[in-house]
Description:
Helix content: 25-40%
Strand content: 15-25%
Oligomer: single chain
CATH class of the largest domain: Mainly Alpha
Amino acid sequence: MKLPWLLILMPAAAFAQGEKVFQTTCATGYCHGAKGEPGGAPRLAARGFDQDYIRTTVTRGVPGTAMPAFGATLNARDLAAVVAYVAALNGIAGGADRAPTRVLSADASRGRELFSDATRSFGRCATCHEVEGIGIPVATPIANVPSSVTALRSLRTRRVMSMVVDGESFPGLLIGIEKQRMMFYDLTSLPPVERTLDRDRVKSTGTANWYHAGAFSSYNDAELSSILTYLQAALK
């Protein structure tokens, strides 16, 4: 389906129509928020997405997630309009300044699917990590991709502390500390539970003996290798 000419010929109309389609189709609260703000799904505004990525994602959806393929449900004009609208939220006007499409290898494409594989429930990477707008940013953005599966399995997560609350000890991922409160994710189970407690109820005893490998036991080594290939391509 050829859409770029629609975006170039009618950017103003596409934006208005795209906003209307977005508000009725995408901004449900359970999915994306109004004007591209976060909802149940990640925010779309000011993410730096290029137009090819936006068009492909809207048209084909994201396998393994709740993001459907709208290419089969929207007519050509509405599809082009909503792509133009999301592009405008990312600073792209009327199809200009389009970045070249990044082509993934077969192994990296497989890794992208595995990263958000819905069949693994909360045992998937996207439960705690967000890459290219897919997933939930519980952990800080991935700065350094491990060089091998062995390195990934032995990775210790930063900011994980041993928390003690009412005599119960468990690993917690620190979010922040205010004068009277402490915010952290309880890593006892997946998905992590965000907790905010009075500081005098929480005692932290330093780094917890918690390894990243405990969160992705649903993957085998070959699958983890594909995920690393994807991350190395997506985050370079």
